[in-house]
């Protein structure tokens, strides 16, 4: 038993021990918060991205799978691990899906019905990105069937008896489907993040919105249907969120409205998809143009060296259009070389990446419109089932890993950002 006279002293001692514990517990959190610079929105100044009045050239990647993996607590850690790995390479932007319409782990179960569990997974992705100083390019719907896409919207309208056509392209012109999509956009843009408490439309962690992944409307090769849809939806988004940049999500093909550029297309079929890089990107609410680079999917009989020549011509043409015609940045949001090609060798992928990085670096040095690249696509170890013939686990492919770090350092030097985002330490070492 404690003597009565010592009890006041023990109470005082207990108070100080408790206070010390609280201080030590919250000190690191406070210092981390205090030391974290306020994040500014990425903006556009002519043909350049800017943050805090400094140019930003993007070296980043695609990991479409973030939200899907964040739903399950057993795989959620892979999101943070991938973001950490990207940040350690100096990568600044990751493109990922902010949609999953119908099916397994659907964000939007049916028109206007959302799964809160999946929304919280997306909240987690955004919060983790901020933690690792990586910004997100969030894509809003898929032209393809993966994760629902426009096919799911058409099926919903058909099932509810309001669809005007069973064609997948009715996604672009059916009034009911347009309303479905607008409702989705409104819910997403005004979503209050359950982790950070910030509405998506007010969160600078989001680099930009991408309207649709690889849009095509083959039922109207003139391009009018798709253009009308782009104009309407981008106007709607900007009426809710005027803080974030916005892009279409194009592959970059030229259509009938750009007759002088048709020879730049890989083959004739590319001009018959209802898209047009210049016209679509010139929409008043579009802040920057997007292009993909997949020569081994677009050609069937070209040698590797011929594909490389095409890539340079393809990129330079779009950078020139961005500078002279659009007066907007051009971001190459997907590029990759398939490992299923008959003549494939790992060294080819190194050369392919090098050429693409060099074109962007030269454009950056000359202050042209080539604004950066996003590799398709990066994974963590053990995720082979989610990979494809382009997938890369960075630390398992040392030469690619080094190339990506080198590009981060080169672009950081051009913009004077070597003191930021750990680039100074990263770029002072030889990799």
From TrEMBL:
Keyword Secreted: yes
Family annotation (Pfam families): GH5_mannosidase
Keywords: Glycosidase, Hydrolase, Secreted
Broad EC category: hydrolase
GO molecular function, one term: mannan endo-1,4-beta-mannosidase activity
Subcellular location: Secreted
Keyword flag Secreted: yes
Main localisation: secreted
Catalytic activity, EC: 3.2.1.78
Source organism superkingdom: Eukaryota
InterPro entries the record matches: GH, Glyco_hydro_5, MAN-like
GO biological process, one term: polysaccharide catabolic process
GO cellular component: extracellular region
Coiled-coil segments: none
Domain Glycoside hydrolase family: 41-377
Reaction it catalyzes: Random hydrolysis of (1->4)-beta-D-mannosidic linkages in mannans, galactomannans and glucomannans
Recorded family membership: Belongs to the glycosyl hydrolase 5 (cellulase A) family.
Protein name per UniProt: mannan endo-1,4-beta-mannosidase
Originating species: Arabidopsis lyrata subsp. lyrata
């Amino acid at each position: 038993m404690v003597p009565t006279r010592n009890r006041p002293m023990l109470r005082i001692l207990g108070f100080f021990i408790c206070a010390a514990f609280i201080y030590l517990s919250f000190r690191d959190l406070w210092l981390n918060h205090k030391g974290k610079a306020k994040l500014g929105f990425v903006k556009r100044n002519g043909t350049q991205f800017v943050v805090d009045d400094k140019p930003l050239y993007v070296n980043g990647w695609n990991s479409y799978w973030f939200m899907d993996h964040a739903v399950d607590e057993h795989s959620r850690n892979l999101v943070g691990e991938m973001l950490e790995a990207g940040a350690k390479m100096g990568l600044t932007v990751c493109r990922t899906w902010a949609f999953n319409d119908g099916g397994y782990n659907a964000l939007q179960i049916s028109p206007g019905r959302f799964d809160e569990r999946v929304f919280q997974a997306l909240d987690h992705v955004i919060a983790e990105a901020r933690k690792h100083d990586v910004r997100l390019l969030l894509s809003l719907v898929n032209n393809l069937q993966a994760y629902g896409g426009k096919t799911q919207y058409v099926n919903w309208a058909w099932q509810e008896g309001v669809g005007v056509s069973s064609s997948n392209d009715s996604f672009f012109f059916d009034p009911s489907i347009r309303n479905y999509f607008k409702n989705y956009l409104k819910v997403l843009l005004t979503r209050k993040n359950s982790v950070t408490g910030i509405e998506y439309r007010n969160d600078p962690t989001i680099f930009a919105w991408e309207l649709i992944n690889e849009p095509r409307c083959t039922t109207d090769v003139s391009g009018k249907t798709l253009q009308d849809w782009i104009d309407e939806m981008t106007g709607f988004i900007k009426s809710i969120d005027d803080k974030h940049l916005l892009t279409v999500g194009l592959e970059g093909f030229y259509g009938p409205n750009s007759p002088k550029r048709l020879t730049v297309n890989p083959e004739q079929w590319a001009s018959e998809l209802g898209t047009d890089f210049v016209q679509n990107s010139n929409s008043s609410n579009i802040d920057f143009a997007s292009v993909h680079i997949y020569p081994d999917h677009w050609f069937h009989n070209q040698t590797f060296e011929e594909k490389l020549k095409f890539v340079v011509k393809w990129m330079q043409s779009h950078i020139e259009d961005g500078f002279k015609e659009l007066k907007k940045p051009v971001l190459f949001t997907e590029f990759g070389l398939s490992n299923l090609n008959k003549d494939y060798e790992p060294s080819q992928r190194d050369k392919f990446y090098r050429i693409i990085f060099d074109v962007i670096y030269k454009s950056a040095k000359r202050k042209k419109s080539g604004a950066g690249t996003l590799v398709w696509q990066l994974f963590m170890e053990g995720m082979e089932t989610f990979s494809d013939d382009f997938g890369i686990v960075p630390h398992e492919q040392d030469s690619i890993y080094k190339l990506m770090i080198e590009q981060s350092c080169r672009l950081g030097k051009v913009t004077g950002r070597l003191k930021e985002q750990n680039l100074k330490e990263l770029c002072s070492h030889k990799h």
